[in-house]
Each structure stands twice: as structure tokens, then as C-alpha cells.
Amino acid sequence: MNIVVLVKQVPAISDIEIAKDNNLVRVGAPSMLNPVDKHAIEAAVAVKDAIGGTVTILTMGNALAGEMMRDGIAIGADKGVLVSDERMAGSDTLATGLVLAKAIEKLGGADLVFTGKRSTDGDTGQIPPAIAQRLGMALISYANSVSVDGTTVTATRLNHDGIETVQAQLPAVVSVTEKSNTPRSPKIRGKMAAKKAVFDVWKVEDLGLDAASVGKSGSATKVTELFAPEPNPVGVMIEGATPADAAANLVKELTAKNLL
Amino acid sequence: MELKQNICVYIEIAGGALSPLSIELLGKARQLADAKSKQVVAFVAGADTAKASQEAISYGADAVVAVEDSTLAAYDSVLYTKAIAALAEKYEPSVILIGGSPDGRDLGGRLSAQLGVGLVADCTDVRFEGDDDTLTWIRPAYTGKLFVKIQTTTRPQLATISDKIFHGTPADPARKGEIIKESVDFAGAAPSVKVTNFEPVEKEAEELTITTADIVVGAGRGVQTEDGMKAVQAFAQRIGAAFGVSKPLVDKEWAPYEWQIGITGKKIAPKIYIALGISGAIQHKLGIQDAGLIIAVNKDPDAPIFKFAHYGIVGDLFEVMPELEKQIKKIRG
């Protein structure tokens, strides 16, 4: 069983403050592993423990992003691959999905791909479906529990105000929530392996991609502005022939401004 | 009717009818289409789409394009992507709005990869800022403290939209619209994911507290009597708001200290604070200044609260309350 875990390096911003001049004040350390990704790694290692297989951690990012994979090696992942190429900087979900799908193909495909439900920075949750579509795999997103036998993955997830139990034939992409498992702690031996691990680094050419299809040129979205919400003005008096009329006018005003 | 280059909405069917989120999207699509003299076209897929199609028209669609196939009885992200991608290729929409439900987000991600177009996830607003058909999408960043504006450079412009952001327009059963059936070849296709069990989760009656509720109603001296205060409390309950009071009502022992809003009581930060008969003494002001929106009703036009409330009504709170309740309930349907 070939199991791939996608992880991501995210800014370790525990909080963000907006200064009076509208500049951002980032609170916290520079970068960390996207928190929910620990659960994706645990899910993969648990499948390996139960039915055997190889767990490969795959990440895309700058040279430092590779370091995010060591915690996974420490708890039982077999190897890690870093896709890192400055031409990929600024990739949106369209370009990132393409790169990661190509990387999984280069790994020889996967029976199972685990991801965290979302990243704390981009926070779109769009990579799991993008990869499933590109690789022709089933998708179970937002899984709160996962079990795998040789050919089938079964999971529970919240949907339509209830708990669904869903089943898919492998190969499948599964994105997991924090509820899906409790990540194990590394043992001494794992820590040693993690320290010594050397990761392959793949570039655009290694994936058989054209540089134009990745990075900013391969992206179809652009951020045009980052802004703080404008405070609502104070002291607006709502008039009406009677207090009841004023109440009706108030609700009209709130509705028009999308405040209600 | 020109069916290309329009504002399209992917409609989700829940229990045979439109999902509430689909109704919200149709309302927004209607506004966007009217701004550019375009049509609202609803895309729908399922085993039986008749009822949802009719409803989509009554909620603002000019036309519905339906892919009806027994294979589509239950939502499946592979099969539904195939159906909606086929419609996108044929009708070349300017925009496709997709509800940000778990299923909608899966569909959006797959469609983006399938069509090779950009996708903006979990938008909380969208508007035209220029003369062409480019939409500016707005979504929260950094846990909602900031927002980003995003544009997509490809067509259709694809986005998922969070729920309870937009309001649908009320249904108009007399609205007319065209319903077009399209067939997509699902020969040999089978759902990729099977739902083997479903357990509805009873929505827990969440206890409303002044420190956690989205809406808080506060009562002050303007209630005049203990019964007056109780009437305000009942109003709060009926509109789904938590209830608190200003210090004088606690001093009169009409309300326990736990209900007191203010610097010597509880500091609150609801999305909406409705202050009824509260003059706005400094000690109360300091307890509510983190509220997103402050609405004040007071008989006295010179009450200090009107200086820092976002909206104010001068009048008797007992005349304002019933109408407010009626209007709020109307909006919520």
C-alpha cells in the first residue's frame, strides 16, 4: 500500500494585531507545520501499522519547508519529498494542485493520500478535491474518523446536520480533522531517524512541468488588496412617523448593509 | 434568451427542495445579474430536479439547466463534477457561485482542477468594481481580523460562498423561467463514495449567554417596572438573543448580578447589541464597546448612548420592540 501524506509549512502566527496605521503586527514565531497535518500523518502511519505499506510525506514550499517533515519521520513515516523551486512561489490552489498531483504521479501514484482538512494560512481546503480530480481518485473530506482495509476506506464526517458514514474504494484522498485521531509521540529511535533523514528535492523539470504552469504564471487568482474592516459609523439616528415605523426603517437599513 | 456568459448558481438539493444556502446565492446572483443586465442561470443535478428547478425560478433564476440522471440520486463529487463541468463547457458562464457546504467545497475544488480555472474559497462578499465582468471576491484572512480582495483571471469565475452571508429574495411563485434538460453520458459510471449510514445530530438548544451570544438585548431604567423588564427579556428570547441589564436594574434587585452588563458587570462583545431604555452611562459604555454593532432605543433624544451607538431610535421601547420582532422574523423567514 502506497500512502502519501501532504503537509504544509504555515506562518506560525498565533495571533495578528492591526496597528493604528493599518500595518499588520504578526505575533509569534516564523513558521511551523500546519497543526491539523499531524493528524494526517498519524492517520497514514496507523494504516501502515494495521495493514502494511510505505508512508511518504510530500510537501511544497521553500527550503525550510522540508524540516516540517521530520516530525512525521519521527513517528514512523518512511521518507519525505520536498517540492521546492522558486519558480513555484505564489502558486494558488490551481497551480499547487497541479504540482502536488504531478509529484504523486512521480512517486508512482498512491493508494491513499492523506491531508489535513485545511491550512491555517490559505484556509481554503481546496487542495484535496483538486488532487482527487486530477488523479481520478475518490475523495472523503473532513473525516472525523478513518479506517482502511485492503481495498476500502471508511470514514465518518459531518454533513447535512448529521454524521455520515461514507465508504470509498481505493485509491482515495482523505482529508482529516483534528478529531480523527490522537497523534502519537515519537520514540528515541524515531527521533534519531528523523534527525538523519535526507529528503529528495524536486524542481519543476523533475515533475515534467512547464514553468509557465506553476507559480504566479500558473495561477488564476490574484490578491488585489488586504484590508481591515471599516468600523461602522456611530450616531446614525433612524427616523420614522412612529417608533414602530422607525423600527421597520432600522431593519431595512441593517438588511441593506448586510448587518443583520 | 442568451444563455451564455451569465451569472450561474450551482443549486444544491436538500430533501427534494433547494437548500437554504442555494436560496441565498440566488438572491446575490440576481443582484449581480441586474447590475450588468445579465441572466441568472441555475445549474442543477440530481435524479429528480423538477421541484428544485421550479423553486430556483421563484427565487430569482431566469433559467434552469438540469442534468437529470438516476446515477445522480445522491450527491457524488466525481459524478456531479462531470455534470456541472459539462454545463460549464456548454454555457460558458461568466461566474459560477457554489455554496460553501462540505459537498459544495468538494465540487468547487474538483471543478477548478477539471476546468483549469481559478477558484476563490469561502467568500463573504462579492461585487463588481470595474466595467467588465470581473468580480472582486472578498474573504476573511487571519481569522477574520482582515479581509482580502481576490480576482480570478479565468472564466468561469468560480467561488464558494459561506452560508448565512446573503439573504435570498422572497419566493415569487408567479416568476416565469425556462427549464432546459441536458443529458450527460454516465454509462459505466458509479458513485465514487457511498453513504452507508446517516445519523442526524439533534441541534442542541444552545444556552444563550451574554458573553457568547451573537445578539444581546440589554434592558435599562426605561423598562420602568419589573414586568417591563420581563417583557424585554421575553422579547430577547423570541428573537434568539441573550438578555442582560444595566446596573440600575441589578441595584433594584430586579435582576441578578450575573446579568449585569458593564465595567462592574460583564464586558460583552456580541455581533449586535440592542440597548433598550439604557441611557449609556460610562460604566455601561465600557462594557459594550467591543460589540460589533450597537443599536439604542431611548425616549430621551439627549441620552449619551446615542453618541456611541451605531444606530439610534428616539421613542418608547415598548412601541419599538413588537415591530422590531416582526421585521426580524420576516427576514429570517
Automatic annotation (TrEMBL), chain A:
A Pfam family: ETF
Transmembrane segments: none
PANTHER family to which the protein is assigned, alphabetical: ELECTRON TRANSFER FLAVOPROTEIN BETA-SUBUNIT, PROTEIN FIXA
SUPFAM superfamilies: Adenine nucleotide alpha hydrolases-like
Protein name, UniProt field: Electron transfer flavoprotein small subunit
Residues in Electron transfer flavoprotein alpha/beta-subunit N-terminal domain copies: 21-211
